[in-house]
């Protein structure tokens, strides 16, 4: 009788072990298939196969199915009455065109890529460069008789800094803003009277809690 109990206990232990093993196997992640290596005799054809796939090897745009092969950094512009300058960095994943600020009327000059002179091409009326894959630094200048009313910038450039006619322009704009604010306050006082003066004492003119 004791021998049968031992066999029964061993049988139960084996069943438990089998169930545990089956559970562990079921929770393991599926094996990752190794990337198939290109045969040596076909390796020379690899570039030819993908050369017509314009976005091959380029990262996907966030939350989208499309890809982009060139990503611009901040575009810095410094413009004045007789010209200006610009600089920008680009990360390129596949050789192709990148666009510069300017247009046919205001063409960028003396363009340098990675400290080397570069040739600017006309891409459907827009100044552009052909860059290979990698990180690149671009700079150039503009020359004109007077500051244009508008300057075309690449729509891909989401972050732009602008220095317009140096600090003198900023000083003139600040002086004009203060004068306009004071004139507006005087008009409001004449119209609203003591009620507006009480409001002025409770608020700041430009920066909340400061000024």
What does this structure look like?
By secondary structure, the chain is an alpha+beta fold. Among the domains are: 70-164, Immunoglobulin-like (Sandwich), CATH 2.60.40; 169-202. It contains four helices and ten strands. The protein has helices at 2-27, 46-50, 166-192, 194-202; strands spanning 70-72, 75-80, 83-92, 96-99, 109-113, 116-117, 121-123, 126-131, 134-143, 160-164. The strands form two sheets. Strands 1, 2, 3, 5, 6, 9 and 10 form a seven-stranded mixed sheet that branches. Strands 4-8-7 form a three-stranded antiparallel sheet, with no helix packed on it. Strand 7 and strand 8 form a beta hairpin.
Q: What is the CATH topology descriptor of the domain at 70-164?
A: Immunoglobulin-like
Terminal Cα span: 97 Å
Structural class: alpha+beta
| Number of E strands | 10
Low-confidence stretches: 1-7
**Averaged pLDDT, please?**
75
General form:
elongated
**C-alpha Rg (nearest Å):** 34 Å
Report the order of strands and helices: HHEEEEEEEEEEHH
Oligomeric state of shown chains = single chain
Count of individual helical segments? 4
Overall helicity? 25-40%
Strand content: 25-35%
Largest sheet: 7 strands, mixed
| CATH architecture name of the domain at 70-164 | Sandwich
**CATH class label of the domain at 70-164:** Mainly Beta
Write the layout of secondary structure elements.
Layout: H1 2-27, H2 46-50, E1 70-72, E2 75-80, E3 83-92, E4 96-99, E5 109-113, E6 116-117, E7 121-123, E8 126-131, E9 134-143, E10 160-164, H3 166-192, H4 194-202
Parallel strand pairs: 2-10
Antiparallel strand pairs: 1-3, 2-3, 3-9, 4-8, 5-6, 5-9, 7-8
């Amino acid at each position: 009788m004791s021998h049968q109990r031992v066999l029964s206990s061993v049988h139960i232990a084996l069943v438990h072990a089998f169930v545990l093993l089956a559970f562990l196997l079921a929770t393991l992640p599926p094996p990752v298939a190794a990337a198939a290596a290109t045969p040596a005799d076909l390796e020379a054809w690899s570039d030819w196969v993908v050369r017509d796939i314009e976005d091959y090897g380029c990262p996907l745009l966030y939350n989208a199915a499309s890809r982009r092969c060139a990503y611009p950094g901040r575009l810095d512009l410094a413009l004045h009455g007789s010209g200006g300058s610009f600089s920008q960095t680009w990360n390129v994943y596949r050789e192709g065109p990148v666009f510069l600020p300017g247009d046919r009327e205001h063409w960028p000059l003396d363009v340098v890529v990675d400290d080397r002179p570069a040739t600017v091409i006309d891409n459907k009326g827009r100044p552009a460069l052909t860059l290979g894959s990698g990180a690149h630094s671009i700079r150039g200048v503009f020359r004109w008789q007077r500051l244009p009313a508008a300057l075309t910038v690449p729509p891909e450039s989401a972050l732009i800094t602008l220095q317009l006619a140096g600090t003198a322009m900023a000083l003139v704009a600040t002086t004009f803003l203060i004068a306009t604010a004071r004139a507006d306050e005087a008009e409001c006082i004449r119209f609203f009277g003591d009620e507006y003066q009480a409001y002025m004492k409770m608020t700041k003119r430009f920066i909340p809690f400061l000024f």
